[in-house]
Design brief:
The chain is mainly β and about 250 residues long. Helices cover about 10% and strands about 50% of the residues. The chain folds into 2 domains: about 100 residues, no CATH class; about 130 residues, Double Stranded RNA Binding Domain, CATH 3.30.160. Helix 1 packs across helix 2.
């Protein structure tokens, strides 16, 4: 379907993705070098773990990764990471606890077991595995041992890194691109948004403006709550020639 977009107006049409074309007339006749920027289309992830410390460590890493978006556990995410953990005390490595009045505190040696599963939106298991780490709990009342025990940070960081490294090899990150597919005249260009060359997704847009107009393309994703989130700014410059990939 072809849509005409007037200058300085936005037109939305839902097709899984939203595209916005903003056209503003240039105020100078100086030579302009197009600035092209692109980034991958981020993937949404739901995370579940029965260990609060590991849950927090994984969440922090996902939030710092521009390829991933941490989603609430609402069933709408594209990928799911589930981690079940358990602790086993290693009695052969235990030492005499430190006495503090009637409270005994110690660094309790433990085996930390983490079983992870990575799945997609259709509940297909993409990968699963088991990580076992010899570590210790810190500053807990002896001999208490539970999933809330504070594990040595180095061990927890190592486990979180291993899980996300495995997850990243199965969670695909799609690089989105745009291409000028046709030009009627110097004032009309047709732009398609797709995952790769030759693949067009959503609508095709016709832009109407002066030949010297600047063209900015921003892609939007509709979230589960109905809001739109800008995920990509693709190009700014003069109207390009047909066939050019932006």
């Amino acid at each position: 379907m072809m849509k005409k977009i007037l200058p300085k107006k936005f037109h939305f049409k839902q097709a899984g993705l939203f595209a916005v074309l903003l056209l503003a007339s240039c105020t100078t006749t100086n030579t302009y070098s197009p600035k092209i920027s692109s980034s991958p289309y981020s993937r949404t992830i739901e995370l579940t773990s029965n260990n609060p410390q590991l849950q927090s460590a994984l969440e922090q890493r996902i939030l710092k990764n521009r390829h991933y978006i941490l989603q609430p556990q609402n069933g709408f995410s594209e990928f799911h990471i589930t981690v079940e953990t358990s602790l086993v005390r290693i009695k052969s490595l235990e030492t005499k606890p430190l006495l503090l009045g009637r409270i005994q505190k110690t660094r309790t040696p433990v085996t930390f077991n983490a079983h992870y599963k990575i799945g997609n939106q259709t509940s297909l298991t993409l990968a699963e595995g088991h990580i076992q780490k010899t570590t210790e709990t810190l500053s807990r009342v002896y001999p208490s041992l539970s999933l809330n025990s504070n594990i040595a940070p180095e061990a927890m960081d190592d486990i979180a890194n291993q899980i996300l490294k495995e997850a990243s090899s199965h969670i695909t990150v799609t690089p989105w691109s745009t291409r000028v597919t046709g030009m009627k005249d110097e004032q009309h260009v047709t732009i398609a948004v797709g995952e790769s060359a030759g693949l067009e997704l959503g609508d095709t847009f016709i832009t109407e403006s002066q030949p010297t107009a600047k063209l900015q393309v921003v892609m939007f994703e509709q979230q589960a709550n109905g809001n739109n989130r800008a995920i990509l700014g693709l190009m700014e410059g003069f109207l390009p020639q047909a066939g050019r990939k932006l």
